[in-house]
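Renewal narrative, Specific Aim 1. Our central claim is that a sequence can be written position by position from structural information alone. The example that follows is taken directly from our test logs and has not been curated for this report. It begins with the structure tokens describing the chain, in the order in which they were read.
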């Protein structure tokens, strides 16, 4: 049966930690979202946000789309917009890795780089100004309910099915918070006792894809009641774990995945029993021009 590239989004594999997890009474699984065609977990919400926007008539072939991104969402949006023949401008801080910029342009998107000093918040401000002044339409991953619904409809059900309903803890880094919001909503419906653990950086850390948002930039889709516990991870811990994932488990992933794995392993060491699923949100080849694996 022939498939389109869109049919390959989701149904990513779970692989069990055989080295890093040393608690024999706890199962730790990594969900490999880098297996999505666009290379990250963001393929899911990007597809859902554009598809639903087209179905509702909020997006048309004449729409000028714009979105601020730290990387993976932008790549996914560039891919999906290209498939649908839509114009999109992606705005990101200038210190983003060149692999991200080049990949977005390869898919046909216009990429605008803003000052690294103002970070992703500045990129968001730039995009919002173009919406107000130039008639652009923002995909708005931070406030678009189709973001978290993608995970409610796909990520959560996949985890429940692939663990045969045994999952006790779900660990996810928090950026837009779409992954943790949607997956939490589904898993809690199946078993209210499943623990949802969010990962944030320590105050001094800068980890791509994980944020501790200032209140005025807090994603509108975020509902703190859907997260049972928030654990912090340092930049050094996240980077070290990303290297260990590659070297010891054969899982080549980025820094935010290292952050989630750090927390998942910290959690595993404290449990008497359980089944933990940790999101590996992208692939490590997005970071080769950085000094992460140097």
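The sequence written for that structure reads:
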């Amino acid at each position: 049966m022939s498939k389109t590239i869109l049919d390959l989004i989701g149904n990513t594999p779970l692989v069990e930690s055989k080295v890093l997890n040393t608690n024999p009474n706890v199962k730790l699984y990594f969900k490999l979202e880098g297996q999505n065609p666009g290379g990250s977990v963001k393929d899911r919400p990007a597809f859902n946000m554009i598809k639903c926007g087209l179905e509702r008539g909020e997006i048309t072939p004449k729409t000028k789309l714009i979105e601020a991104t730290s990387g993976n969402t932008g790549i996914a949006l560039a891919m999906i917009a290209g498939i649908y023949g839509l114009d999109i401008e992606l705005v990101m801080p200038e210190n983003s890795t060149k692999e991200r910029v080049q990949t977005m342009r390869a898919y046909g998107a216009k990429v605008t780089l803003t000052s690294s000093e103002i970070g992703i918040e500045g990129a968001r401000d730039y995009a919002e100004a173009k919406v107000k002044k130039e008639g652009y339409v923002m995909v708005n991953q931070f406030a678009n309910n189709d973001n978290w619904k993608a995970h409610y409809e796909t990520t959560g059900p996949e985890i429940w099915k692939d663990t045969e309903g045994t999952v006790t803890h779900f660990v996810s880094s928090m950026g837009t918070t779409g992954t943790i919001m949607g997956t939490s909503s589904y898993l809690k419906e199946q078993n209210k006792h499943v623990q949802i653990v969010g990962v944030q950086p320590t105050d001094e850390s800068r980890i791509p894809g994980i944020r501790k948002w200032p209140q005025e930039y807090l994603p509108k889709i975020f509902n703190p009641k859907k997260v049972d516990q928030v654990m912090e991870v340092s930049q050094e811990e996240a980077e070290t774990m990303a290297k260990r994932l590659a070297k010891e488990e054969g899982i080549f992933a980025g820094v935010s995945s290292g952050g989630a794995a750090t927390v998942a392993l910290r959690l595993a060491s404290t449990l008497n029993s359980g089944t933990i699923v940790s999101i590996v949100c992208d692939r490590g080849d997005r970071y080769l021009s950085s000094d992460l694996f140097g």
